[in-house]
């Protein structure tokens, strides 16, 4: 195992009875000097050879969701233990199927306002998909300037859900800097997106009804009625009540029980908890508490972990930067949806020869894999490895197809939205093979 140069190693965490915080330190990078906007990030080194293993920047999805969602629930080396909250700081455990087994990961709270990222001037929160992507590019420029040892490592941009809109756009902007010889020269090799949004409503949501019908969730009669009355409807704002109801049907995992969404609501839509003020250490806006049997009970626990003063001190959170951490901001901060379609960016990047992985949990009805398949086919790339099962431990773990221009699509059997949250072992196997340029 290579010596640690910076960041965090799962093997170096201090394991106590209550939490795993020993060497966990976050950092800030200023991306908007005028408004004093700073992005917060966690860097975790690969458990393999960090001198040669890939480096990935990870962009999570949702409505300005904290990247802790990815770190604690999906691909990071730490997991919250799903046990009843007793008033103390929730406990953490080691996650054996973390992607940090084979890569170093930069988990970034983006855009400004997500997680522990903040702005001294409230105007700094007024960003959109394009401006926040450019801030991420600035973040990476500064980070690699401060950590030049990682410049030779293969670099990838990754993300899921609505973060899948940012990934190919950001990757293209980085590639343009490389072509213009802008320093530092990042060793960009490709990108990956999971259960990705494209910005095209017909693609992202238009496949929900056929998917739900195919999975036996809606009847033939309802399917035929929807197809008859909803053709041509605006998926983002359907006028027909039947169509509106149909398009609202979405489950992160169609086989799991429906649970309350464990995210607190903004108090009055103001920026009160985003501007600088002293923390009081009290959870003012606790989220709804799901039943213990719910997959998202750990989402509820994350509020008590991230808002604990012990955690904040260990992470190095700046005093007064955040009155209260929330997992996701539900449209209480301005955010412009400027990227209308990512398909052209996928085409551009793959035609340049960059390595690309698109994967979908096959039990996700939020962004069903049928829609993802449709835009991949629209690229009209020849198939070099036909649709087939890929395997783990002698069993089918999903299905995959490979196109020319280094483009791979894979489904993850029993994966939801997002896939690593529900099938971590399969997703690690998929990622490890792909990033090593092996066939799935």
TrEMBL record:
Statement: the UniProt record of this protein carries the keyword Protein biosynthesis: no
One BP term from GO: proteolysis
InterPro entries, per the entry: AB_hydrolase_fold (IPR029058), Peptidase_S10 (IPR001563), Ser_caboxypep_his_AS (IPR033124)
Source organism superkingdom: Eukaryota
Alphabetical keyword list: Glycoprotein, Signal, Zymogen
UniProt key word Signal: yes
Entry's Gene Ontology molecular function annotations: acyltransferase activity, transferring groups other than amino-acyl groups; serine-type carboxypeptidase activity
Family: Belongs to the peptidase S10 family.
Protein name: Serine carboxypeptidase-like 19
Species per Swiss-Prot/TrEMBL record: Triticum turgidum subsp. durum (Durum wheat)
């Amino acid at each position: 195992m290579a010596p640690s140069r910076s960041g965090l190693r799962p093997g170096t965490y201090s394991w106590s009875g209550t939490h795993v915080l020993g060497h966990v330190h976050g950092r800030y990078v200023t991306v908007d000097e005028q408004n004093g906007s700073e992005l917060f990030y966690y860097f975790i080194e690969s458990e393999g050879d960090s001198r040669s293993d890939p480096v990935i920047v990870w962009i999570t999805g949702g409505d300005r969701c904290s990247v802790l969602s990815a770190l604690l629930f999906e691909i990071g080396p730490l997991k919250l233990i799903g046990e009843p909250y007793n008033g103390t700081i929730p406990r953490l455990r080691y996650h054996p199927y973390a992607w940090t087994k084979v890569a170093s990961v930069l988990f970034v709270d983006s855009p400004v306002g997500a997680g522990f990222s903040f702005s001294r001037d409230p105007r700094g929160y007024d960003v959109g998909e394009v401006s926040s992507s450019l801030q991420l590019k600035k973040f990476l420029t500064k980070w690699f300037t401060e950590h030049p040892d990682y410049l030779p490592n293969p670099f990838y941009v990754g993300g899921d859900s609505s973060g899948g809109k940012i990934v190919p756009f950001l990757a293209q902007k980085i590639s343009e800097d490389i072509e213009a010889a802008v320093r530092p020269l990042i060793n960009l090799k490709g990108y990956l997106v999971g259960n990705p949004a494209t910005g095209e409503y017909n693609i992202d949501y238009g496949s929900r009804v056929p998917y739900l019908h195919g999975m036996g969730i809606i009847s033939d009669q309802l399917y035929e009625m929807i197809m008859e009355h909803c053709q041509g409807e605006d998926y983002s704002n359907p006028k027909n009540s039947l169509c509106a109801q149909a398009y609202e049907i979405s489950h992160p995992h169609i086989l799991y029980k429906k649970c309350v969404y464990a995210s607190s609501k903004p108090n009055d839509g103001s920026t009160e908890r985003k501007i600088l003020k002293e923390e009081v250490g009290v959870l003012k806006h606790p989220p709804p508490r799901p039943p213990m049997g719910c997959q998202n009970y750990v989402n509820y626990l994350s509020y008590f972990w991230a808002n604990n003063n012990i955690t904040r001190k260990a992470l190095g959170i700046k005093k007064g930067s955040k009155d209260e951490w929330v997992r996701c901001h539900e449209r209480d901060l301005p955010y412009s949806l400027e990227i209308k379609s990512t398909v052209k960016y996928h085409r551009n990047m793959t035609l340049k020869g960059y390595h690309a992985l698109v994967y979908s949990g096959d039990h996700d009805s939020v962004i069903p894999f049928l829609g993802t398949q449709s835009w991949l086919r629209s690229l009209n790339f020849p198939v070099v490895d036909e649709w087939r099962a890929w395997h783990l431990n002698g069993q089918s773990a999903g299905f995959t197809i490979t196109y020319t221009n280094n483009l791979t699509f894979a489904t993850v059997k029993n994966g939801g939205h997002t896939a690593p949250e529900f099938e971590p072992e399969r997703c690690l196997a998929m990622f490890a093979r792909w990033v090593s340029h092996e066939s799935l």
